[in-house]
Amino acid sequence: MRLAEAFRLAEVCGDEVWPGWDAAPFELLLVTEERELLFRPSERPAGLEEIGRDPGLGGPILSRERQFPPNLLATFPAFGPTPTIVVGTAEATGAGSTQWVVKVLHEHFHQLQMSSPGYYEESDALGLADGDDQGQWMLDYPFPYDSSEVGERYAALSSEVARRLERAPGEAAADLEGLWSLLGRLRESVSEKDYNYLSFQLWQEGVSRYVELEVAECAASRFEPSTPFRELADFESFSSFATRLRESVLEGLRAPSLAEERRVAFYDLGAGIALLLDRAGADWKRRYLQRKFFLDAYRER
After folding, report:
1. What gap in Å lies between CA 216 and CA 301, rounded to an integer?
2. Do the beta carbons of residue 209 and residue 158 sit within 8 Å?
3. Under DSSP, is residue 295 helix (H, G, I), strand (E, B) or coil?
């Protein structure tokens, strides 16, 4: 039921939030305690058998015994070149139903990123993998999170993003040069590889958090949840969830703790910068997949 709601929400809000998003694959592997169920497969991987068809869920459903952790929430090429969302149930991932649906669309945006031409070659060119061909560097890169200088400059940038978002939209967008200046000061405190990693995370996870918020706010105004979904015990209105998510992003920006949050702190900062690019009228979404991994590449209108 939750998965059908996620697919429906993508149809209603996907292209409104991000033009061209509907061209991305939506292959998804649902991990349960005993089995894994593959929905909307781009092809039939070896070792999976068809157990049924459901037009509302995209056609054939393939199954195999569980191989991934039941609390996983990630996107990667699980069966070949197509990036696959691999996700546990709402209960296993600790998410409420509404939050789980929106998180699935966060992962679906990763599918748009990863299926864009040149994504893997260009990410390799950042020089961050150090021989890792499994993509684990995206999680484990040794960024200087514990550096007091880096932490102070990161906090200065993050809190400035929060201050601008809390102003009236016209005032926040008046001049972003001060923002880029603070990003430049942060860049001076780290190595080139460290800055490449920071920029990669802001571009990939930060913008996906921004998309998560935009989807929730679109759903609050344009999406009608199905009756069975609304009757779930843990249902929360999309309006309520969108309000909580926006406040969570702002709170993360106001008082970031890089040493404690590590790479997760980058989610809110990237989302905040994306929101400010919107307010500034930057035509950044059109360039997003052509000029990858550096949000300051979109500073020109």
Report:
1. 27
2. no
3. helix
pLDDT single digits (tens) 196-209: 999 999 999 999 99
Give 24's contacts (C-beta < 8 A, 6+ positions apart). 108, 109, 111, 112, 115
CB of 88 closer than 8 Å to CB of 2? no
Tokens of 99: 């939050």
Give the angle subtended at the CA of 24 by the CAs of 51 and 281, to the nearest 5°.
150
Cβ neighbors of 282 (< 8 A, separation 6 or more) are: 298, 299, 300, 301
Instruction: Look up tokens 């949050």; give the residue.
Output: 261
Q: What is this structure's pTM? A: 0.94
Nearest Cα to Cα of residue 122 among 285, 287, 291: 291
- pLDDT average, residue stretch 132-154: 92
29: helix, strand or coil:
strand
One-letter amino acid at 1 equals M
Say how far apart CA 13 and CA 290 lie, in whole Å: 23
Assess whether pLDDT exceeds 90 at residue 231: yes
Q: Is 288 exposed, middle or buried (0-12, 13-18, 19+ CB in 10 A)?
A: buried
| DSSP code string of 76-132 | E-SSSSS-EEEEE-HHHHT--HHHHHHHHHHHHHHHHHHTSTTHHHHHHTTS--TT-
